[in-house]
Amino acid sequence: MTKPSLAVETLSICSGCEIAILDLHDALPGVLDAIDLKYIQVLMDFREPPKEGVTVGFVSGAVRNEEQVELLHKMRERSAVLVAFGACAAFGGIPGLANLHTKEEILKEVYIDTKSTVNPDGVIPHKVVPPMLPELHPLSDYVKVDYVLPGCPPPPKLIAELVTCLLEGREFKLEPKTVCDECPLTKEEKNVTHFYRWGTKRIDPERCVLEQGFQCMGPATQSGCEARCPTALAPCRGCFGPTEAVDDQAAKMIGAIGSITTKDFKESSPDQTAKEIPDIVGTYLRFTFATSTFKKAINMGTAKPKEAART
Amino acid sequence: MGKSFEPKIVAFACRWCSYAGADMAGTSRMQYPPNARIIRVNCSGRVDPIFVLRALKLKADGVLIAGCHPGDCHYLTGNYQTARRVALLKEYLKAMNLEPERLRLAYVSAAEGAKFAETMKSFVNEIKTLGPNPLSNGGQD
Ligand code: SF4
Ligand code: SF4
Ligand code: SF4
Ligand code: FES
Question: Residues A195, A156: one domain?
Fold first, then answer.
């Protein structure tokens, strides 16, 4: 029997996801024994996935330009099983926050307005580089995704687990639990009066950091990372995206904040709480803005930009 | 648009107070604009933030949450929780370029039929000044 084959395509990425694959370390030779790695640009000099197709295709990164739409469709056609690899591919990830601005605003900021830019003619790159889409999209806006491997980047242990499941023909599924469910810190207080910026106050290493007034996304985030951030006493940023039961991490967090804060207005008013949590989108939708309720800020401009190509 | 604009309002009303207040406004034949679809909830604290976001995403022009006065919640603290959620939701709406005034929290007791009618009137007027939800008009979907 021929070995199952794997191709890895990279779209709009930071490369962290590819490094996470290399980070399999000791498990990597085993994976390479069992799988025929056909295409991965960080390791091999091929320009596209093999024409004859592969058993499994990983796609990391989000879709931000027209070329990436084509690359994604090519991967879908050539992969029997397609995996959205990492937060960017699955939910748009951090680059999805760019959906707070229009494409025109972004290009102007980057190529004209930034202080370090010298561009007296105000030229926006338009030759050779593929045209940018009006907004950033997760893979599922264009193609059917068979499995989602969340995380920014996905933890190596989970990558190995997914590969094993695929090799053994088993379903890969994350348990319907939140990061809080796996978190070792002690939860007790439901009477938080104030919220603080991370690093501005001493923390108690035993207690839930959210209940100590820091923004931890544990209640709104799918488990699977073994609560690696709160275990290291850093707040969860939400990189595993929402659980199946939640469709907007910010809505879930806003609900949670209501539940854990003090139950009168004596020590803190609602407006005060809102002031203490200054960046709702950047805090609560850091990885999932492109798949949240609105997906992008509403464009108040006159022209309705044309829809991204969908086939 | 202009003068023919009749806002679509989704109103969540707590059964222990505001919903009864709305009933009272009705039975006492008080006049108030018919723009709201009133949804009865067991407590204003039952209004999950996602309800508000979905209503606006589905092009409601405004969302009203009406609950018991502070200190009077049947479940003691539901309305305090809601007040904090509403403050945060308004910030969320601002980031989406939606006017925060499209979401309003009001305290109306079961005895305050007139206040319910007043609240409806002033909310409908405010939304009329704001105009339609930008998702239904001009803004991209
Ligand atoms: S999910 Fe994280 S690690 Fe992977 S490409 Fe996106 S930003 Fe980089
Ligand atoms: S909110 Fe954060 S720190 Fe608290 S229990 Fe959940 S994951 Fe742990
Ligand atoms: S704790 Fe949260 S931010 Fe950290 S890896 Fe897990 S899901 Fe991602
Ligand atoms: S019971 Fe009316 S607001 Fe809680």
Answer: no
